[in-house]
Amino acid sequence: MSVDEIVQTLEPFHTPHVLITGGEPILQKNTPELCAELVKKGYLVSVETHGEISIEPIKDLARVIMDIKTPGSGMCRGGFKENLKWLKPHDEIKFIITSAEDYSWARELINSGCLPTREILLCAATPGAGNSGFPGVQPQWLAERILEDRLPVRFQVQLHKVIWGPDKTGV
User: Fold this and answer.
1) Which of 1, 30, 46, 52 has fewest C-beta within 10 Å?
2) Residues in CB range of 140: below 8 A, 6 or more apart
3) How would CATH label the architecture of 1-67?
């Protein structure tokens, strides 16, 4: 779809906020243009990214929701470090916790003071099917660790798995 087609598709919904996600939106060459057009039309725009490529093209156009891949994900390449300088205080950082080791790793990073945003989320990758072989952690276990350690984070569950089950990621 073109940028104009996307904007026209959104208009009948009368929603004030648009989240651009799916795959990796920053790899799509027209994402900065789409963000700019949506802002021009009065939308609040968020972009969810895996954090491994530069967010600079969209940093001033959208609220960035950046994953920091944990070691247990098998995708922790460290590219997120280059993006920390582009994050704004109201942007979000999200960690998907797949194990106790991931939790310890994320806790150290959070406590290091190097994360420039106030919005940090920890999400339990629940055990079982649909986690690409990750062991996963129980949501209660993660919530208890956060409380014990008094981490300045928000707790999150993988809502799509609560709604559609562990084997289906969406509609």
Assistant:
1) 1
2) none
3) 3-Layer(aba) Sandwich (3.40)
Q: What is the rounded CA–CA span in Å between residue 26 and residue 49?
A: 7
Residue 126 is predicted with a pLDDT of 73
Three-state DSSP at 111 gives helix
Q: Where are the domains of the chain?
A: 1-67, 69-171
Give the percent of the chain with pLDDT over 90. Answer: 67
CA-based diameter of the chain, in Å? 49
- Closest by CA position to 47, among listed 109, 38, 89, 12: 38
Rounded CA-CA distance 139/157 in Å is 7
SS3 165: coil
